[in-house]
Specification:
disordered N terminus; five-stranded mixed β-sheet
Amino acid sequence: YVPEVTSQSVYVAVADEVARSYAFELATRLRSQNISTNLNVKPSKLGQQFKHADHLGCAFVITIGEDELSKKTFSIKRMSDGKEKHHIEIDKIDGIFEKLDLT
């Protein structure tokens, strides 16, 4: 299954394998909002995951690591211009694109 890529498509990148189940939780919540979401199921380096997201044409990459896992947050990067926002609480994922301010 390959999700349709849209202007709100997201790739969830896992920086630390310990955080993989948390990444799946985020991906599930995004998909429940009908947001096209990709998640690499095999371990790979973060840089490779960003390259894969770019290759797929994903508009955003959410990064999850050990720090995000412990704080129940995530970071998001807009691929078109590289703007990022860090330490977003998981509860703010619902309607993320309506609330996201990357100016």
